[in-house]
Amino acid sequence: MFGFSFLTATPMGNKEIGFTLKNYRVFADQPYLLGVAWTSLSIGLWTTAISAVVGFLAALALAKATAGRVRETLLILILLPFWTNGLVRVFSWTMVIREGGFLDWMVRSVWADAPSLGFLYSQPAIVLGLVHGYLPYMVLTCYIALVSIDDAVIEAAASLGARWWTILARILIPMAMPGLVSGAVLIFVPVIGSFMEPRILGGTVGVTLGTVIEDQFTQAFNWPLGAALSFTILAVVLAVFATFSGVLRRSATI
């Protein structure tokens, strides 16, 4: 595929093939792709941020407020999204958040004249589907980091008069930072290249780099451009890994 990204046409059929670098100038030649890239980046940041907040709090409750079979049962429930087919999971959300769907039925069972809360085919719908799919990564990495924190440290801080938010901000979050960063990298990297959730939950507003790449391979039959876009995303991913490599090494030693 890396070699394809330098070709002038897909090496199938009767087209004359040559070498070019123009596929890597696509963001300059087609400025609308900058907007598509920003949409992908925005969805990746929102998904990672929401997953970080929800995942950290869930992992904190799991590590410090549960034990024994209750903890094991909750861990299994957290891992359930991994055991379900991604396509089925995403289509299930369309039944919940579409206009007149399950969400509206729940609200109107309490307030009959309530306006529709359906938000299918919007960017929040894409983020919701991605958070559901990738949240377990954040919960598990934060759980591993939090469970290694000695309870005596927390008890010592509390005995010295530290309030819960002080313990959270000055002890738990800093000590669990390797887990947070690892989870953020594991989520952000695949999300910016995802295409299934944007395609199904975003509709016409779900145009991302992932869907553009898919179109190049399946619709436009322009494999060189699709490959060049893929390796551009790979360069971004490597930059992310290089930025956080120090924290990831610290995480590996836990």
Strand content: under 5%
What is the distance, rounded to the nearest whole angstrom, between the alpha carbons of the first and last residues?
37 Å
**Percent helix:** over 70%
Q: What value does the average pLDDT take?
A: 86
Shape from CA axes?
Answer: globular
The radius of gyration over CA amounts to 22 Å
Q: Specify the number of helices.
A: 13
Q: Decide which structural class fits the backbone.
A: mainly alpha
Order of helices and strands: HHHHHHHHHHHHH
pLDDT under 50 segments (min length 5)?
none
Major beta-sheet overview: none
What's the total count of β strands? 0
Kindly list the characteristics that best describe this protein:
254 residues, globular, 70% helix, single chain, mainly alpha
Quick rundown:
The protein has 254 residues and is mainly α. The chain has 13 helices and no strands.
Could you please describe the fold and organization of this structure?
With 254 residues, the protein is an all-alpha fold. It has 13 helices and no strands. Helix 2 runs antiparallel to helix 9, helix 7 packs antiparallel against helix 8 and helix 9 packs across helix 13. The chain is globular. It starts with 25 loop residues before the first helix and ends with a helix. 29% of the residues are buried. The model has no long low-confidence stretch (mean pLDDT 86).
Task: Outline the fold blueprint.
Elements: H1 26-29, H2 32-64, H3 68-83, H4 86-97, H5 102-108, H6 123-147, H7 151-159, H8 164-175, H9 177-191, H10 196-202, H11 209-218, H12 223-243, H13 245-252
Helix pairs in contact: 2-6, 2-9, 3-6, 4-10, 6-9, 6-10, 7-8, 9-13, 11-12
